[in-house]
Amino acid sequence: MTDTSKKLAGRIALVTGASRGIGWAVAKRFAAEGAHVIAVARTKGGLEALDDAIRAEGGEAITLVPMDLSDFSKIDQLGGIIHQRFGKLDILVGNAAMLGTLGPLSHAKPSMWEKVMNLNVTANYRLIRSFDPLLRLSDAGRAIFVTSSVGAKPRAYWGPYAASKAALESLVGSYAEELHGTNLRVNLIDPGKVRTGMRKEAYPGEDVSKLASPDDVTDRFVELALASTDVNGQRKAV
């Protein structure tokens, strides 16, 4: 029986990059709010640990999807599987990303540039391409993509990552403009300074006690995932 007292009761939510950091926290929070979570990440062990953590708090088992989003054909396959099993998708969270190497743009290796763009931009385009029909089958489809401050304001030595986030913001903005007159809403979230592995990679030695935890930023994700929200094409900071 669905617990209608929970904010996302009965909703089907797919979260990428769910094996750690913000993706883990959002998946866990969505499950606590009553959603059935489809958790996607490369690390099977991390997904299993997430499932254990959700069950330990009294939540139901989630659907685990260990896969590399840079293998784009698998995204299409996943869309077909979700349609067959659930008949729709209510919430999509495009969170998975990689930092790449920080340094002078002229020193960036083409192979690294390609990996950053594949995961941070092209994979999200492929998610939109594959899951747009499923989100439109929902009575209130919601898509949320995670961006960064450098997507709006470029920073020296962050070239590949900054370019990928700027491209993502433009991509999502274009998608949102196509959705007028539909029940689908698409937005961006800039979580700010959060205590994650990527943040540690970018700022080694930083005092993490001054950073928000991933759990601290989940309220905004729930807000934009609600069937009642009418926000579309917005860039929301936490």
Task: Give short descriptive properties of this protein.
238 residues, alpha/beta, globular, 8 helices
Task: Provide an overview of this structure.
The chain has a single domain (12-237), classed as 3-Layer(aba) Sandwich (Rossmann fold), CATH 3.40.50. It is an alpha/beta fold and 238 residues long. It has helices at 21-32, 44-56, 72-86, 110-137, 149-152, 159-177, 197-202, 218-225, and strands spanning 12-16, 36-41, 63-66, 91-94, 142-146, 185-190, 235-237. The chain has a seven-stranded parallel β-sheet, with helices on both faces. The mean pLDDT is 97. The chain is globular, with a radius of gyration of 17 Å.
Domain count: the total is 1
Which value, in Å, is the CA radius of gyration? 17 Å
What's the pLDDT, averaged over the residues? Answer: 97
Name of the CATH homologous superfamily: NAD(P)-binding Rossmann-like Domain
Sheet having the most strands:
7 strands, parallel
- As laid out across the biggest beta sheet, the strand order is 3-2-1-4-5-6-7
Helix content: 40-55%
Q: Which regions are unreliable across 5 or more consecutive residues at pLDDT < 50?
A: none
Give the CA-CA distance, first to last residue. Answer: 33 Å
Task: Map the helices and strands.
Elements: E1 12-16, H1 21-32, E2 36-41, H2 44-56, E3 63-66, H3 72-86, E4 91-94, H4 110-137, E5 142-146, H5 149-152, H6 159-177, E6 185-190, H7 197-202, H8 218-225, E7 235-237
Parallel strand pairs: 1-2, 1-4, 2-3, 4-5, 5-6, 6-7
Helix pairs in contact: 1-2, 3-4, 4-6
